[in-house]
Write the structure tokens for this entry.
Amino acid sequence: MTIKDIARLCGVSVSTVSRVINDRPDVSPAVRAAVLETVRSCNYIPNNSARVLVRSNSDAVGLVVRGVSNPFYSDIIKVIGREIDAAGYTMVMQQINSSADEIGTGAIMEREKKLRGIVFLGGRSDYTAEELRPITVPFVCCSYDNSFGVLPRDRLSSVSIDDGQTAYRAVSELCALGHRRIAALVAGTDDRSISELRYHGYLRALKDHGIEPEEALVACAGSFSMEDAYRATRLLASGGAEFTAMFIIADAMAIAAIKALEDTGREVPRDCSVIAVDGLALSQYTRPTLTTMCQPSERMGEESVRILLDMIEGRAGNRSLVLEPLLRSGGSVAPPRRARD
Amino acid sequence: MTIKDIARLCGVSVSTVSRVINDRPDVSPAVRAAVLETVRSCNYIPNNSARVLVRSNSDAVGLVVRGVSNPFYSDIIKVIGREIDAAGYTMVMQQINSSADEIGTGAIMEREKKLRGIVFLGGRSDYTAEELRPITVPFVCCSYDNSFGVLPRDRLSSVSIDDGQTAYRAVSELCALGHRRIAALVAGTDDRSISELRYHGYLRALKDHGIEPEEALVACAGSFSMEDAYRATRLLASGGAEFTAMFIIADAMAIAAIKALEDTGREVPRDCSVIAVDGLALSQYTRPTLTTMCQPSERMGEESVRILLDMIEGRAGNRSLVLEPLLRSGGSVAPPRRARD
DNA sequence: AACGTTATCGGCAACGTTCCCGGTAACGTT
DNA sequence: AACGTTACCGGGAACGTTGCCGATAACGTT
């Protein structure tokens, strides 16, 4: 069933069928109706490959996500997928694990010819402009805070929260309650990832409240996984370090950390308050419920593809959006108990 | 940069270049090397659309998933994506919400021309053979238990656990501890979904243990979401019904249900044991940890694409796999307290 | 020496579209 | 009546591949 068949069936030329299919003018209402009718009755579907070939552009937009294990991304993927579909595009998803050059070069570059645009989700924050060069289609970084300005701001589209500021607010919350010995659980401190941005916010908040950061109070899980978070927290908790609160860079990690705390004899929030950032739906159902900075994931997904499509379809250029997180108070934060010493 | 350019650059014909690109014989080692070299140095990538057009088959396999909110699917999506990539195919993901005909017809049918195969994740269990007819490419249903035999077994590939039997085992576990009044939380009872399969296992287990099922003890959430699960459980718990244990068809729902139970004054497992099925990594970190029937999600994902690719590449025909779940004991189950009356 | 074989290679049609360009008929306009 | 305009339509090249078929040269084989 090709356009040629339809043409023959209607007694018109291929060109005419093409015109009605693509909703172009210069075709009489009668013919248009007739063609439409046979198209429907034969339920003919234009061959996408042929279309792409001749127009040299497709309807595919890529979603490359790093670290699918992070449940926060599941939420975002969901809305990104929904929005891409709604706009009539096709989403092709690609997961990457770690090696960052996969992004700039191989995996994507290979597909590039087919893609109209790309949304990056959860990549590290230190793409260099150089790495990004091979990408010639529009792209937007979702959940990517360009605060460090590593990327020239006029060449990057992104939507995110201000990770540093968000962490700052969270930690300040703890300080306001009187906490002075505040531990942190991060995924890593050596790259310019979301983890480090939030870590810096933590440091800044401590300093602004006159607290000297202590090396011994920051646990590094090495990844965003619950398993690693549990292990790292356990290590911290059994290390003899004294702290009355913890700042944790992600909800999922916080949930694991809370278990680690309790497994080592500390009750949350009585013995240790916990505040996190992400705002998973899930963390309203744990015990205790999590006090956390909610990222507007719905909005982040929507805006990401809106911006991307604006670029793809030439309606607008680069744009970056910094969204405001919202503190959701749960049961994991309380004032510190009176110091024992 | 087309195949023609490469040909010109090498001083050979287009055919020859095509031959070396596709790793076909009938080309001298010298020429092959030369072509390969220029291909690399120009980093030429064959135009996929043209390929697909002429060969009339692509490298895309579809993943259509219903209910992305279910965190169990996140795990599976992850491994499915990984495996599809590894095999050199491209994954295009499509979410659907509810209306089942989207599956059989529209969304897929539209894309069909491009897809080599499809893996369905989380669709309802009552596709009719009729609905499936329009799908002409190989497909496999992941996490789909065809126990009801609604589909002719020789026309369907699937990989799943035996949902009924799994629920049966879970509930039997409760019975063995002495529980007699066992409530159930399901997503729905009216369709032939996973929810109903598990629900039937629950009923069967009760009967086999001489317990008369009670309408009043089954709560229907209406979906797999935590929100609905919480609401339904709360309703059940505040309804005056007496029960010492709950069987819940999904981990995520169980987590929400536990909160509902505790919010209405019942402690888990002291006042009410909870057993679920899924086996999310997450549920090892909640408090209490969840006793649950673990689905081998890793294996399910792997086998799904293995089966699919076997069909696509003509290595094998339909195949169905029923995997064995594993009971993971957590802290949410205990013997019933002595009856009060 | 004539012939079959084999190893290499190029030509060319085809895949299903889109889109430019040119053509025809019908209809004013002067 | 000759001309320009408009509305509609078809022809055909092009998009970048693949794969069939035929061509050539080199090499045995009888």
